[in-house]
Design brief:
heterodimer, A: alpha/beta, FAD/NAD(P)-binding domain, 2 domains, 4-stranded parallel beta sheet, about 20% strand, globular, B: alpha+beta, D-Amino Acid Oxidase, Chain A, domain 2, 9-stranded mixed beta sheet, 7-stranded mixed beta sheet, about 25% strand, binds flavin-adenine dinucleotide
């Protein structure tokens, strides 16, 4: 058995786990992040939803129920966490834009608008209701993006299709990394006979340096250009995830990827170590404190059986909103199915409330009462609680 | 106005079977169905081509009809039937006396049986409960109800009969107390067509009484809903029954890549207001798990429910042809054919047409038992190797349906209905239940100009709502995970809840 020791071990490589690790490694702690697989982040639009109730998302926090995790973090700390996120991203190839105190509307692939807050700079102009003329450029045969959804809903708009010879977002994004392809695309777009206005593209402008591609496109065409998020697989989501991971590694955080935590070693009310299920020898990772950021159902942090819900790493008690018959509304479109409330109940120091474990903290979508779909607060909540749990952990350790 | 000899209302197995029978006897007709083929009990059934063994102890007559039809359908409908064979499994505690009666009754009716030891049964189906006492092999088969309807209607369509799907009968036209036609409304354009005929056949199953009322008569029935669950894997290659008197959740039928387990039996009044209760799912899953323990851990992709029209005690003017089904002459130009089973649809059609040929002076007797269904050659299937080559072109990853498949259906039947594409290509039938591919199929329909973008948003909303109804009762485990993902896409990324 290989053993390694850290100050803090974070379990779960999603938005909350990364933000907790970034916070702690900035404070000088030796951290390890363990993740079984890619997070929900890589399926997301890459946009940071904070809270959709009001123009200023942060002021909406006051109106949330008392048991919502945002209430525990507090308005000010949420704002600071979002600023910290933007600072991290500013140093990467995918800088963000936006003000934590102001929601914006961006265009979706079906021509509706979606309320969000911070967005990758490639989507800076993706306001759905700006009234400008929009020409949508898409790709022949692209499976997950149909521009007519958009042009039918927006009065001043039109579209044309470029033949990229490939039909998935992923393969088109890969082609945008090739210089000859980009050049061919640029000259095609220059020849486009469309009225002056902005140009919108599905989010496929390369995986690694989308801003560089976008800037080249804008300067050569003299147009304002922006990306529209697509359905998963989502390039902006993958870019965000990759940036979070590589910046953490650059900051000295250790990352164990692709291995789930398979067992836990406890002594009394403390966790001593977790064991990773590796194909060869199992390795044991020791820590003074642990942060659980294993996500909700989609990532497997929570698992529902026919009659109950389990937390899969520490088997913590889970808050379950009633019997299974009550978990889902009858109407698909009514926001807020009760099951969204399921999760771990936490106390003021982000420790699980119904457990005696002293050195365990919890963050992200696994926290009870988050109601992420209902509140449209996915990444925002993960960022805020990730930083808050890390700060609580810091207080405990120092 | 359209003129014909016979109007058949209902495009389930019974209605489609009648259309084919009439075609082969040279009687002109129109079939009118409010949805797609197999829109009612036919599409919601278990897909078991009964050997009759299930009924042998309490209804030998129905059992005899089943084995006779079972042999016929295996011959004439090869592309719809998978000759799986079936097992009746006796678990510890199940009555031995029932087993003896069962074997004796099968012999009396003429259903071949073979008693197998647990180890031989496990050789055949390795996922069976190893604690079983024994198993009895019978000639049960799996049948594809949708294909069956399509092929029966195919004969009619290609030989001059009229087939109108997505047309709902909203009125029976009468003259001097006699039914002389129907008015049918197009689901998409709302346009109403009038079709005049000498005879009207009501083959609307659970909706039979509603249609009878439109003509001023009645067709009393008791309705009973039955619910089924679909597992993500084909856990058995044979039909599995529990060797005990018929009860809830005692049958598992393999179908393509999945298995169907069911059913329940709950009285209902309105065939349009039915829903699976999560408790029914628990009952069926618990029972199925006893036969095949893996049912407890495998992912359930959906639950669904159908309505059986059960006969009320026969009234004065009805002719009780069999205990299984009934033909009612309303003495006003309309006949109702009700009850029965999918397995006996051909026999039902034969008896129905026998009852009306006299009106047309036709002496031709029924040949449907001998002539194989036409159009089967065209259902040659699509080799997997070819599909894999077109991976880049695939719109439904679960069932490997390509863009060309989807375009093919849209162009050939000119549909705007996503269900029509699903039935004909299996698009959206896999684990994600259309969560990803429906958006794509609608995008393709837009691109080739079948629907406007506004329409497709509307269709998408309707589809999501319907889909949710099917999966809601069985949401736990991996399926709950998948559901949260799909919700995040439509309500999160696309924000469809706020744009109604
Ligand atoms: C399709 C989709 C689109 C979305 N779009 C948006 C959007 O546009 N904007 C937005 O703000 N929000 C969006 N969200 C919501 C948002 O992405 C999530 O709420 C948020 O990212 C959750 O982060 P998290 O850190 O709590 O968990 P997750 O991202 O779920 O990460 C948990 C991690 O823990 C790992 N893990 C689980 N169990 C173990 C174990 N035993 N051992 C080791 N590791 C384990 C998992 O592999 C995973 O990497 C979207 C969600 C989905 C599903
Ligand atoms: C849960 C369940 C499981 C079953 N399993 C099996 C099995 O495994 N094997 C077996 O042999 N049998 C099985 N059955 C029985 C079998 O499904 C039915 O007996 C058979 O399918 C009935 O076919 P049908 O055509 O008479 O009726 P249906 O299939 O119900 O057809 C009636 C049609 O009429 C249409 N209609 C109604 N109103 C109108 C209108 N106003 N205008 C136009 N059209 C209209 C409906 O849309 C429908 O398509 C099962 C039944 C149920 C409920």
């Amino acid at each position: 058995m290989i053993a390694r020791e850290y100050d803090v071990v974070v379990i779960g490589g999603g938005m909350s786990g990364f933000m907790a690790s970034h916070t702690l490694s900035r404070k000088g702690y030796k951290t390890a992040l363990i993740s079984q697989g890619d997070p929900v982040c890589s399926l997301s639009t890459g946009c940071i939803d904070v809270l959709s109730r009001s123009k200023d998302p942060l002021s909406g926090i006051r109106e949330l129920p008392d048991d919502h995790p945002y209430r525990l973090v507090g308005e000010k700390a949420v704002e600071e966490a979002l600023q910290f996120f933007s600072q991290i991203m500013d140093k990467t190839a995918i800088p963000y834009t936006g003000d934590p105190r102001e929601n914006r509307e961006i265009l979706t692939p079906v021509g509706t608008t979606k309320t969000t807050c911070l967005v990758p700079r490639t989507m800076a102009h993706a306001q759905g209701d700006a009234g400008d003329y929009i020409h949508v450029v898409s790709f022949k045969g692209l499976k997950d993006f149909y521009p007519s959804y958009i042009t039918s809903r927006i009065a001043n708009s039109s579209f044309s299709l470029f033949d990229a010879k490939v039909t998935s977002t992923l393969s088109i994004a890969t082609r945008f990394e090739e210089k000859p392809f980009l050049d061919e695309f640029i000259s095609w777009i220059q020849d486009l006979d469309t009225p002056f206005g902005t140009i919108a593209l599905p989010a496929v402008l390369g995986m690694r340096k989308p801003m560089a591609v976008l800037e080249e496109l804008s300067s050569k065409t003299g147009r304002v250009i922006f990306e529209i998020p697509t359905l998963p697989p989502s390039i902006p989501g993958m870019r965000l995830f990759r940036a979070l991971k590589s910046t953490l590694q650059q900051a000295g955080g250790h990352v164990y990827w692709g291995k789930p935590v398979s067992s836990v070693e406890r002594r009394g009310s403390r966790i001593e170590a977790v064991t990773l299920a590796t194909s060869g020898r199992p390795s044991r990772v020791y820590g003074r404190a642990f942060i659980l950021a294993s996500g909700s159902f989609v990532s497997g942090g929570l698992f529902a059986s026919r009659t109950s819900v389990q937390e899969t790493v520490f088997d913590l008690p889970v808050f379950v909103p009633g019997p299974r018959t009550d978990w889902f509304n009858h109407d698909f479109f009514t926001p807020g199915h009760a099951i969204e409330k399921a999760g771990i109940l936490i106390g003021p120091s982000f420790r699980p409330r119904e457990s005696d474990l002293e050195n365990l903290f919890v963050c992200g979508s696994i926290i009870a009462h988050s109601e992420i779909m209902k509140n449209h607060c996915g990444h925002g909540l993960a960022i805020a609680t990730g930083c808050a749990a890390a700060n609580a952990c810091d207080k405990e350790l120092s | 106005m359209i003129k014909t000899d016979v109007v058949i209302i209902g495009g389930g197995a019974t209605g489609c079977g009648i259309a084919r029978d009439l075609t082969l006897r040279g009687i002109h007709h129109y079939l009118v169905e409010k949805g797609d083929f197999a829109n009612g009990a036919t599409g919601a059934c278990h897909g078991l081509l009964h050997s009759g063994a299930r009924y042998v102890t309490n209804d030998p007559e129905a059992a005899h009809e089943c084995i006779t039809e079972n042999i016929i359908l295996r011959k004439i409908a090869k592309k719809c039937v998978e000759v799986t064979g079936g097992l009746f499994v006796r678990l510890p505690g199940d009555s031995r006396r029932f087993r003896d009666t069962f074997l004796k009754s099968c012999e009396d009716v003429g259903i071949p049986t073979e008693v197998l030891s647990p180890s031989r049964a496990l050789d055949l189906v390795e996922n069976l409960n190893p604690a079983m006492e024994e198993a009895i092999r019978v000639p049960d088969c799996s049948i594809d109800p949708f294909r069956l309807c399509m092929l029966n209607a195919f004969t009619s369509r290609h030989r001059g009969g009229g087939v109108l799907i997505h047309h709902k009968v909203i009125e029976i036209v009468k003259e001097k107390g006699r039914c002389i036609g129907v008015k049918a409304q197009d689901r998409f354009s709302s346009q109403v067509k009038e079709i005049r005929a000498k005879i009207i056949i009501n083959a609307t199953g659970a909706w039979g009484d509603q249609i009878a009322h439109l003509s001023g008569s009645e067709a009393p029935m008791t309705l009973s809903k039955g619910s089924l669950i679909i597992s993500n894997h084909r856990l058995t290659n044979m039909v599995i029954n529990r060797l005990r008197p018929p009860s809830d959740g005692d049958i598992i039928v393999p179908n393509e890549a999945v298995c169907l387990a069911g059913t329940t039996s709950v009285p209902v009044t309105d065939p349009d207001a039915i829903e699976v209760d999560p408790r029914e799912v628990d009952i069926v899953a618990t029972q199925a798990e006893q036969l095949i323990p893996k049912f407890g851990t495998t992912r359930l992709i959906r639950a669904y429910t159908g309505v059986r029209p059960l006969l009320k005690a026969p009234s004065g003017d009805s002719r009780n042809i069999s205990r299984g089904f009934q033909i009612i002459d309303h003495n006003n130009g309309m006949f109702s054919i009700l009850g029965g089973k999918l397995s006996t649809y051909r026999l039902m059609a034969e008896k129905m047409v026998d009852a009306i040929v006299g009106h047309f002076g036709v002496k031709v007797s029924c040949t449907t038992a001998d002539v194989p269904l036409e159009g089967q050659e065209e259902l040659s299937g699509y080799p997997l190797s070819k599909r894999l080559k077109e991976m880049d072109n695939i719109v439904c990853e679960c069932e490997l349906v390509t863009r060309d498949d989807v375009e093919g259906v849209i162009n050939s039947i000119g549909t705007k209905h996503i269900g029509d594409i699903q039935h004909r290509t299996r698009l959206g039938m896999g684990p994600c239940q259309g969560g990803f591919c429906t958006y794509r199929a609608l995008g393709i329909m837009q691109e080739i100009g079948r629907v406007s973008p506004e329409e497709s948003m509307h269709i998408l909303r309707e589809f999501l709502q319907r889909r949710f109804r099917g999966i809601r009762p069985a949401l736990w485990g991996d399926q709950l995970r998948e559901e949260q993902l799909v919700e995040s896409i439509y309500l999160g990324i696309l924000n469809m809840e706020q744009h109604q």
